[in-house]
Amino acid sequence: MTDITIRPLAAQDRAAWDTLYTGYAEFYGVPQTPEMRDTVFSWLMSDDHESAGLVADMDGTLIGLTHYRPFASPLRAITNCFLDDLFVDPAARGSGAAQALIDGVTEVAQTRGWGVVRWITAEDNYRARGLYDRTATRTPWVTYDIKL
Hints:
By secondary structure, this protein is of the alpha+beta class. The chain is about 35% helix and about 25% strand.
């Protein structure tokens, strides 16, 4: 069995992160440019931006990524964690990397005293939803967007 290490995203991970994040955008059918990835990576590398990232490393190769950020919950007067992105290279699916990445974000959230880790996924993302259903509680909330 190969060990998976979860660690913070680092500047030297840029090329591998770019490949993984491109795969994530393609999975969701979101057109993305190199400039868009430049912006996101700069956020992830900045201490002044709320977004942060973790990567899954298997034998020196990045096989997965996740991004997360705090969000305020005024009704409960606490800070929570939003897991924005989670992607594992298709060749590494089933390795435990997705669970390890979620566990990594959960550990960060616990360390920071955040109340809950929350994320959304596509209704038809059945393989991932199998993991999510075992890992977390599906909420009854319905999501809406206003495109600006």
